[in-house]
Amino acid sequence: MASKGGGSRATGTDGSDHGFRQRVDTKYQKAAAARKSLKKTLLGLVAYYPLMLAFSLVPSFAKGGGVTMHNGPVAAGALGGLVLAAAAYVHVSRPGLNGAWLRAVTKVCAVLGIINLAAGISMRIFVYEDKRMAWAAAELAASLAPVGTLPGRVYPIMVSLELLLECVGVILPGGAVALAHALAMYSAPAAAAKSQ
């Protein structure tokens, strides 16, 4: 049957609506799956950023050092990432979706993770060992460990933990970017028309 009213899909009782309904149903199923996965990923980021914030600040404050030029940028990035991830989670949890905003926020989180990883690697190369965040964490861990534990024995573990946190800070936001793109694509009103 011919299209009525200049619409892009055929109407009538000849079964032509069935294919359109199937495409729309598939689109909504994919959008629901992407939303669910994105919410889990954003919750992971909301849990990750406080860990990174604690790793960067708690050892320094425990020694009486406070915020330094070595841990301050990492702490600021973690705090900013936490705010962005929480805002994105709230946005995804509500009905309606601003796909451009969501993609921008997740991309900023991914860029923060890449900058943090690059800064961590450069810190391991250019900064003296006793100024690094991992060394401050090793000193704190040694002070909490049984008597006689030296920071140098705990330091390799703290370097590995710091590197793990930095890698998670790249991987999780990268996944959030991909899921935000998928959700925005499947939730867009034009997605149904493009799929025909």
Automatic annotation (TrEMBL):
Region feature (Disordered): 1-20
First-listed, main subcellular location of the protein, grouped into a coarse class: endoplasmic reticulum
Family: Belongs to the jagunal family.
Superkingdom of this protein's organism: Eukaryota
Bilayer topology term: Multi-pass membrane protein
Name of the protein this chain belongs to: Uncharacterized protein
Transmembrane segments: 42-62, 74-92, 104-127, 163-186
Cellular component GO terms, alphabetical: endoplasmic reticulum membrane
Keywords associated with the record: Endoplasmic reticulum, Membrane, Transmembrane, Transmembrane helix
Subcellular compartments: Endoplasmic reticulum membrane
Origin organism lineage: Eukaryota, Viridiplantae, Chlorophyta, Mamiellophyceae, Mamiellales
Pfam families named in the record: Jagunal (PF07086)
UniProt xrefs under InterPro entries: Jagunal
UniProt keyword annotation of Nucleotide-binding present: no
GO BP field: endoplasmic reticulum organization; vesicle-mediated transport
